[in-house]
From TrEMBL:
It comes from the Bacteria. It catalyses: ATP + protein L-histidine = ADP + protein N-phospho-L-histidine. It is found in: Cell membrane. Keywords: ATP-binding, Cell membrane, Kinase, Membrane, Nucleotide-binding, Phosphoprotein, Transferase, Transmembrane, Transmembrane helix. One of its GO terms (molecular function) is ATP binding. CDD domains: HAMP, HisKA. Its EC number is 2.7.13.3. Residues 261-313 form the HAMP domain. Residues 321-535 form the Histidine kinase domain. This is histidine kinase. It is a multi-pass membrane protein.
Amino acid sequence: MFKHSIFLRIYAGLVILVALVAVLGYLLVQIINYQRAQEYRESLTDGMAYIISEGVARQPNEQQKQDWISDASDLLELPIYYIAADKVELSRAELKRIKERRAAVRYDAETTTAYIIMGLRNDPEHYLYIKADEITERQMKALPIFILDYLVYFPGQEKEYLARIQDQFSYPIDIQNIADLPLDSEQIGRLRLDHSIILYRDNASVRGTTISIISPMPNSPSEVLVLGPVPLFNWMPFQLAAGITLLSLFILSLGIYGLILPMQRKIREVNFALNRMKTGDLNLRLPIDGSDEMASLASSYNSMSDHIQRLIEAQRELMRAVSHELRTPVARIRFGMEMLAEEDDYEYRIQQLDMIDKDIEALNTLIDEIMTYAKLEQGMPSLEIKKVVLFEVLDQVVNETDALKTGKDIQLQTMSTSLEVDAERRYLHRVVQNLVGNAVRYCDHKVLVSGGVTAQGVAYVCVEDDGPGIPEEDRSRVFEAFARLDDSRTRASGGYGLGLSIVSRIAYWFGGKIEVDQSTTLGGARFIMSWPAQRFSKSRKKQGNKEGLES
């Protein structure tokens, strides 16, 4: 089914394309989000890595550094290790971040554990190594303590030094007046008890939910240290969703264009061929690729071009032949009329009138043949295909021919008298009549007529004679209009060269063919016309019978 329908292939291709784009979009989101999540983790830890590194660097000796790190570990409730730098293998990107006083973060998705590596100012031989299984409010509330510990060395200059280190943080840090913050009485009471608070804010903008950490400033009850707002990680921000959607639509557009391009190319070829046909050029033929609708269209165009070309050629040949064939009887009629005008002998005048009448009859016969041939050549005639008893048609033609007293022995071979075939009786009668008439015209003494149905379901009629036969090189020409292999003999027998052409066209419209070879029985020419004995399938027959019963 898919092989024979270009539209089904396009629909199936669209379904597959949509599925592939959906999978591609999902993978892109996962890859991009993985990178975004990594950048988000690093941005959150950069500022604290700088503050902790400064806190360790301010310790005067190794023991005090170890004590400070131990206190920080207890405060964060996270293990912090002071390890030698040569024991940690870092990538080039991680080394670059540590040299810039930023943190290198490694995240294990299976255990959801983050490993944070921090460099130390004035101590390139050691790193701080933190293992964080999860981040709780305990760790978040401990962050302001490290910043306040950093600011304790700059009394009265806290805001200026916060501004200096702001570049190390991806979120704002500032000292604000408590009255300027949207806090309720409970939150203000907790701050005055020297407790840090965490504020969650749902934002309708693209930032989404944010977190702010507020901690009281020592020796300043009206001011607080504010960290944030820090946006929570958004797995599908508007920019990412819009980008993936636009990319998916672009890929879908390319895929649809690729699916429709072959059909567009074939339609363009058909359009080009039709434009060529409008100019009168009928020689162009379309390539037939596959067996779908476009291939069927190309085949139909080629058949139409062949048919139009054949019609034009047949019309030209017909005009030439008609003018030639009409000239002789018309000339004889004119000559006969001139003789009548000059002759006084009554019997001679009667004789001339008989000759003129015969010429007029010949003209009528020729015109009838021409009209029949033209009707069959122009297009499919109106055929009333129905069951016909083959024997009755053959026997009728044999009896009609015998009645003409031709003096030839015309025999009908023994066959079933009830054998039925699908055919148009009038045209089948014309076929047998033309074949038998042609055989009588050229045989010496005997003509044999037969018919039947083969085991393959092919009906046939066969006419043989004992005449000279037809040379093999001329057998294809006998079915051409006005073709004469022996012009003098044909004229003597009264033929016009249209009978076998009419038989050929009827065979074509019957869905069959006409062939000529040498008779193995009589030695002369043997003409065989064959066509499907049943024009309709069994299912069509059953449907027709059912409709007949219902009606």
